[in-house]
Amino acid sequence: MSILLRRSGDLSILGSYDYWLAVTGTSVGLDAEKKLPALAHRLEAAFESIRPLWWELGRKMAADPSAQTAHAPTGGVYGSDFGLMLAWVRIAQDLIDDSGRYLIVCDDPWLFRQIAALSGTDAGAPPNLFKSAARLFLRGYFARLSVAAKSLRAWVKLRHYRRVFSRGEPTLLVYGHPASDGDTKDAYFGNLMVEFPHIRRLLHVDCPVVRAVELSSGGRTASLHAWGGFWDALGLVFEFWSPRADLKSGAHGWLVRRAAAHENGGGGPAMVRWQASCQRRWLKSARPARVIWPWENFAWERALCRDARDLGIATAGYQHTVIGPHQLNYSVATNPDGEASLPNTIIANGPAYARELIDWKIPKDKIVIGGSLRIRDGLGRGFDPDGPVFVPLSAQLAAARQQLKAARLLAQAGHHVRVKEHPMYPLAFDETDRLKRTAQGIGDGEVYSGVLFTTGASGLEAVLAGVPAFRLLLEDRICVNILPCTIDVPTVTTDQVVGALAMAGDRPVVDWAEIFATPDLELWRKLLSADIFNA
Question: Are 321 and 216 contained in the same domain?
Answer without folding.
Answer: yes
